[in-house]
Design goal:
The structure is a homotetramer.
Chain A (H helix, E strand, L loop, with lengths): L1 H13 L12 E6 L4 H41 L8 E3 L13 H9 L16 E14 L2 E12 L4 E12 L5 E9 L5
Parallel strand pairs in A: 2-6
Antiparallel strand pairs in A: 3-4, 4-5, 5-6
Helix pairs in contact in A: 2-3
Chain lengths: ~190, ~190, ~190, ~190
């Protein structure tokens, strides 16, 4: 008898902070600072769309217009406004491998910056299509890390595949910003 | 013409990292360390169920059994295994207001600890019903903070209302643990 | 011999990700979004100083000036700009126990708001001195939770003690904002 | 006069939650879940030391011993115990580019796994020296992200440089675990 009621009591307690039904609880007000999978998906699609938009802008309206667009993209999609960004672009190397400040990012995307003489504008290479696959995601608070393959198709139909890691931070306004970006060409055996 | 295509390009960029459609992205693998509203609801219901279980255990099987149950509840529902817990129980006062370690929490719930002479066992007061209302929640990573009213009904139908703040931490195993608990009787004008 | 070298190898590995000397690593650039103990101490002292400043302003320049100051304090020290704040002031009760929006906080501090008829202005009660003791702190990312006793001394030397929980969030600009505040009079036996 | 006292009051308030002196506040108890720069430095040095240890173990005691050591290293230094790890090793490619589970990581380090036929054991290539430079760090709660160059020297004195991104998570026991690892050979113009 004693045992039976203890078992009954424990049955209740086993659900303690994990399995209760939670039928009756409602929150009248809520703040949620966490990043969501859906937000990350949109950010990745947005990055691809922006890259293609810069390519199109270059073709249609020339360098000056595409540079203006690239600046807009970097300023809205990367976290340089909050400090250094850990950015290793695909085709950067040597002393200019890491682009931790804004000017290095813009130079990489549209070139034309004498401080980055090897940059010839990754974003103005005529990209027409963006795909993303074999991806994994790690979410921790307002940070999400993703890793996968990005496939970029140019106007000749040629596909370039890169291994891509992004780190997104959700800022106080609810916008996602890239604070980490490591891109590399696949290892060729 | 130039203007029109710029507008078109900007229209694409405006969606940059926030409004894209995200139709095509899928993550094959995922880790998500964030706490969810649903988990918090269950944790709160679980806390109420555990309190009632301790009361029932006391009535049915006496002090020793209810103490064993209270220890089990504290060890599974609070974060004492990870360090100090910020716990201010409803009826604690003076030098014993704050119960930052495990023994202080157990003493509060079931009494019988000479180091806490004013404790007469909050959890063994014959509680039969737990309700929660007027609640708000603040979620930040693996932490959720809630504030609201808890209504406890005893075996005579008498309802005790308290103002209650909880802070929950989701641990590496996915379990929620109380790391903050501030409970107080309503201010009486 | 085999055993000895295995032991040697394991000795190295035991230090793996925790005990290495780290003599040679340096980071050229750093972003650190975490809240620090020192920042929390300053925020608490700042809260106390602001409360006294509002009291002094009321005495010297009257209600309108103290209200303007209270608004400034609430707007800079609380997180209402980022959504609901979990605020249970010491002397609030009934339907107005929780002040999750800005107007409820200002009404509590300086009164004079017909929507909060029981508020007579907690911050204009002639407070002269602020002390804080028996405190514990829980730090998790950009959130810090504190619990302890606040002692407020009025112009007659009378000391009011409250049990106080604060939750601070460090925003993207590096400022701490109160997102949780539960204050209660000590339980009287 | 009125103006002067308002200025004085504002002077106090300006310090509100940021510049106060914080002379008198002390916390008797503290929990701090945040990752520190020093912990990250040690983790990086530890990773380098472990890689060299596996190489040495292979030379001294052969494959079986080095495999046992590699398993120990992966199990203590990576976060596979908490779910998928975002791991893109330097020399992995094709369908086996991403090693999100434990067996893929061990295969990469010591080879000999028929499921990963291209792996010939990166950690058993006779590494003698580990260096790290041009690094940046981004800290967010219990996560730290680093990016920089790793230089590995083999027994012939030949140096291999890689571009390296790590993401470390501090677990509930205070140990750092790698949850993200993207390594790539420098882009060759």
């Amino acid at each position: 008898m004693k045992l039976r009621s203890l078992v009954a009591a424990l049955a209740v307690v086993c659900v303690t902070l994990s399995n209760a039904s939670a039928k009756t609880i409602a929150f009248a007000e809520m703040v949620n600072n966490n990043i969501t999978v859906e937000e990350v998906k949109k950010a990745i699609e947005g990055w691809g769309a922006a890259l293609i938009a810069i390519s199109n802008e270059y073709e249609t309206n020339g360098m000056s217009a595409s540079r203006a667009l690239a600046e807009k993209v970097v300023d809205s999609a990367y976290g340089y406004n909050m400090g250094a960004v850990l950015f290793k672009p695909t085709l950067a190397s040597g002393d200019q491998t890491f682009r931790t400040n804004r000017s290095g990012a813009i130079a990489y995307f549209v070139g034309g910056d004498s401080r980055f003489p090897n940059d010839n504008g990754f974003a103005i290479k005529g990209w027409k299509k963006f795909d993303y696959k074999k991806a994994a995601i790690y979410i921790n608070g307002d940070i999400a890390l993703t890793m996968g393959n990005v496939m970029l198709t140019d106007s000749n139909g040629k596909v370039t595949t890169v291994d891509k890691t992004w780190g997104f931070k959700k800022d106080n306004k609810g916008n996602l910003r890239i604070v980490l970006h490591h891109s590399s060409l696949p290892f060729a055996q």
